[in-house]
Design brief:
Blueprint: E1 5-13, E2 16-21, E3 26-31, E4 44-48, E5 51-56, H1 58-83
Antiparallel strand pairs: 1-2, 1-4, 2-3, 4-5
């Protein structure tokens, strides 16, 4: 399963954006060839399978990242629950 993620453009070289995911040190590269409008450094994108598919505003990007963090935390809680031996 693939998941589209929001990320902020840090650099653009030859139609490929290097983007930061959230506030961390995770970077992804994405082709800009599918975007209907030009992208610039500082823009937020939805990236899927190596392609930027849509630009986002800051609020949309923050909301998406918050939801993804909450999903990851819920998954970790479920994994921990099943990892504990039955009483």
């Amino acid at each position: 399963m693939c998941l589209a993620i929001p990320a902020r453009i840090e650099r653009i070289d030859n139609g490929v954006a290097t983007c930061r995911v959230g506030e961390g040190e995770t970077f992804v590269q994405a082709s800009l060839m599918l975007l209907p409008e030009p992208a610039e450094v500082g823009d937020y994108l939805i990236i899927h399978a190596g392609f930027a598919i849509r630009k986002l505003d800051l609020q949309e990007a923050q909301e998406s990242l918050t939801i993804l963090r909450e999903l990851a935390e819920a998954y970790e809680r479920e994994q921990a629950r099943y990892a504990q031996p039955a009483a």
